[in-house]
Amino acid sequence: MTISLETMLQLCIILPPLAVMGLVATRNNPNVREAMTIVTGLFVLYLTVNLYAGISQGDVIRVHWLEIFPGLNLSFAVEPLGMIFALVASFLWPITIIYSIGYMRSHNEKNQTRFYICFAIAIGCVMGIAFAENLFTLFIFYEVLTLSTYPLVTHAGTKEASRGGRIYLGILLSTSIAFFLLAIVGTWFVAGTLDFKEGGVFGPETSLTVAGVLLALFIFGIGKAAIMPFHRWLPAAMVAPTPVSALLHAVAVVKAGVFTVMKVCVYIFGIDLLGALPSTQALLYLAGATVLLSSVVAMRQDNLKARLAYSTVSQLGYVTIGALLATTLGVVGGSMHIAMHAFGKITLFFCAGAILVATHKSLISQMRGLGRQMPITMAAFFVASLSIIGVPPTGGTWSKWYLLMGALDTQQWIIMAILMISSLLNIAYLLPIPIQAFFPGNEQTPQDAQMNEAPLPSLIALSITAVICVVLFVYPQPLYDLANAVAAVPGTDHGN
Amino acid sequence: MLIGLYNYWVVVALMMTGFYIVIAQGNLIKKIAGLIIFQTSVFIFYISVGKVDGATAPIVGDGFSQYSNPLPHVLILTAIVVGIATTALGLALIVRIREAYGSIEEDEIQKKDDQAC
Amino acid sequence: MLAHLPILQVVLPLLAAPSCLIMRRPKLVWLFTLIVSSIAFLISVALLQQVMESGPISYELGGWEQPWGIEYRIDELSAFLLLIVSAVSTVVLLAAHTSIQAEIAEDSQMMFYVLYLLSLTGMLGIISTGDVFNVFVFLEISSLSAYALIAMGDGRRALWASYQYLIMGTIGATFILIAIGLMYQMTGTLNMEDLSRRLPDVAHTRTMYAAYVFFVVGVCLKMALFPLHLWLPNAYSYAPSIVTAFFAATSTKVALYLLIRFTFSVFDFSFSFSTLPLQPVFLVLGFLGIFVASTAAIYQKNLKHLFAYSSVAQIGYMIVGYSIATSAGLMATLLHLFNHSLMKSALFLALAAVMYRLSSVQLSCLQGMGRQMPLTMAAIVVGGASLIGVPLTIGFVSKWFLVMAAIENGLWPVAVLVLLGSLLAIVYVWRVVEVAYFMEPMPGKDPVKEAPWSILVPVWLLVAANVYFGVDTRLSVQIAQAAADSLFGVSP
Description:
The complex is a heterotrimer of chains A (496), B (117) and C (492).
Chain A: H1 5-25, H2 30-56, E1 62-69, E2 72-77, H3 80-107, H4 112-131, H5 135-153, H6 159-191, H7 208-221, H8 233-236, H9 242-269, H10 271-276, H11 278-299, H12 304-324, H13 328-359, H14 370-373, H15 375-389, H16 396-409, H17 413-430, H18 432-438, H19 456-474, H20 477-488
Antiparallel strand pairs in A: 1-2
Helix pairs in contact in A: 1-2, 1-4, 2-3, 3-4, 3-9, 3-13, 3-19, 3-20, 4-5, 4-9, 5-6, 5-9, 6-7, 7-9, 7-11, 9-12, 9-13, 11-12, 11-17, 12-13, 12-17, 13-15, 13-16, 13-19, 13-20, 15-17, 15-18, 15-19, 16-17
Chain B: H1 6-24, H2 28-50, H3 71-101, H4 106-116
Helix pairs in contact in B: 1-2, 2-3
Chain C: H1 5-19, H2 26-54, E1 57-60, E2 71-74, H3 76-103, H4 109-128, H5 132-151, H6 156-187, H7 192-202, H8 206-223, H9 231-238, H10 241-266, H11 269-275, H12 278-298, H13 303-324, H14 327-358, H15 369-372, H16 374-388, H17 394-408, H18 412-438, H19 453-471, H20 474-490
Antiparallel strand pairs in C: 1-2
Helix pairs in contact in C: 1-2, 1-4, 2-3, 2-4, 3-4, 3-10, 3-14, 3-19, 3-20, 4-5, 4-10, 5-6, 6-8, 6-9, 8-10, 9-10, 9-13, 10-13, 10-14, 12-13, 12-18, 13-14, 13-18, 14-16, 14-17, 14-19, 14-20, 16-18, 16-19, 17-18, 17-19
């Protein structure tokens, strides 16, 4: 069949929400229902890959839907950064579905249809964010993403869940309306357009102070990027079922945040302007502080999911740093980190969920010696931890490498130091978990422990993502090319 | 000068009296009475404005060259009708309030409403 | 015939009102009222078209030339308002029969339609007339019928609310009457156009200041601008649902129209904004209204109360746009006026559906209704989203223009405050969503069916308009722009 690339782009966005109808129709037959989500997911992945092939050949893919009033459009376009994000999200969606089947069934969760429906809508929004051609379009999908994930966060229906949900919704919505929307309006007023443009939309006559204020509004307004002090929603969202935490709060939602930050920095401000702004440096330090502080907080968490959540906050700071370094290498590093961290963190969450399902343990202190019971899970955990830390042979190495290079390039010594220290902290809070699982020491060695692995679908899912962490080390070229395309456009005169 | 514009003094005095009654009185009927006084003061204001010194009623006749302005009278006729309608409606409401609450005192009605919550 | 449209618009419902008394059966009366309102709507469409094409229409009542006779004058602003009022009235009437049967006793249903038509007459009259005394008369026609309509509500609270409204409303109207009297005393004319020619000569007398202040206070009472809003929440809450839907969308808007009309067409614009400190006063009152009323809305347990307080807040937004005192600001106000009519009529009509099934609009009764009455609840969600100003709904469009107008004038704090106001709207709308969708139905309560189609169809018509005009803004923006420009063109 021959579908034009434009149609594919639209299908990517429309298909997941369309699948909702099918899900509602088949709600009484879980097998059909889940088969349908997977098929939809695979099809979306197929489309995304095709789009990737399209832009690699240099095709321009652009779709225009609506014009609210002159200049304010609902339209989409494919560019390299969005491609990275879309590829990651559409690749991990079917895998997460496979994982969820194992998790949700063995956990006997209620309202499973609602779960899959909201998941599908959320993925549709992610696609919309990834391919948005202007800030307005992006903003709409950004907000819908927040709303569609709320039922997922409060899925348990308990008091605790709805409290978490309120924090989640409260922080994300209020930052987005009070700051993000204001920044959008300001951009419109100053630049007269909201379109993402290579090299930025602000003319040379723009006052640096005004642009600096706008940048700060953007960084704080994009609450999903979890820059302190607006990071509280992410730990609060951990009341959600683990597949949700895995895909949405390690990949889709938080990456939507840093993706937006990256997009704004590169395509609204442009690297050149960004480097000249007075507020960039301050925000850079703020991101650095976020990285360090949340790593420290992560060390103090005994609940595995909470520790991973704070680790996510910290890793998101890396991407923001990459964007704010305002140099080609920083942008390359940040863009790659979006993908690298996604695969690493989703594996970690998958493992956390697997442990919970198999042994009902959620505290790290209870996980000593678990390696014998769950060798595969723990091995995957180990590999993923390495990737988060940035040690060969895992993909995380590359993104951290480029981030460091970026810091070096701009002679941001403090930022460099922060990145190094944070890597050490990563080791300190992640590696002990698998090590103690395999080598519990003398005091407690349950020799008779049986193999007690998670359900097979979950196991498959987490193995795939763990393997990919390694694959990305060996074969990072396509990703690097995309990231380079993001960075190379605005200022090729910027060095390498 | 102050005496010369005595009609305004009358109007203002009546207006304030009426207004005060509407605000200060708790009895619904007294409130309506206050409202009527308030409105009437405005009527008087209109009519006194229409009076031209040394002029006669606006009926064309020999020997008269100056006439008072008849338009305010016409306007006020309409306004009086409106005022009567308002009063009638207000009183009708009071009758039904009395049936429903058993009282026409503002504070008692308010208390009953608060209790019902 | 075509030349007489401006007066037909008003006379038609006026004559139709007593005609209702001949027809005895409620259903027949309803159909008749619906037809009359539809014709009024068609006339307003024709008028709007005529005005947009060939400029303002002046109609001399009985052939008496102005300023001696009474002039009816339809310009862009009036045509816009006529369209809003008659359109909302027609759509709301579609649902009236079903809803009224449940809420009003059979023998007084006929009176309901009589009063409804009179109220409609009053509003259309206020908008079309070019004579300030006529304004007062029509104001009282619409108010008196409004008091009676509100008193028809279920329970004794409706009576008490109606009485309070009557007192406040009459004081407001009398204030306006005083203002008109003072203006007449100084200029000897009642025609708006004539007034605008003669007022500048006497603009700096104390009498004119007094007249203006009396007028503004009176009209703010009618408009329910904070802190003169106290009559509104109870009046809206205890009136029959249909009445609430109609009034929430129109009556305060008509008062706002009067304020705009007097500020721009009767008094000189510079008189209103330079001589008197209107801008800071209205800005402060507008924002106080937004924040105090929105906060009050958050704590309401009765949904009608909740949305009534939200109405007070929305009036605040309109006043903020108005007090920016530029063409862009006025346009944002007019746009919000249009948009808010659509939102609130949709919301209150949806509440009429809730009332029909549950006989209550307490928030707690809504538990689990997301599943039992999905269409009604979805309508409330879309309407609520529009109140917040979510993109792709009309609320977004008007907020966007409002924020833009503020920024253009360098009023950055205003822009920030407007956005912060939306946050409060999120909270009160979210409370409704949470109860309806994320709470299980109260145990022991029989499940209810979805509301009947006769209510759902008009509700969704309005909801569709909420989305349509949020996406395709050409029509509303163009008219609002034309109206704002013409007002500023008259008195630059």
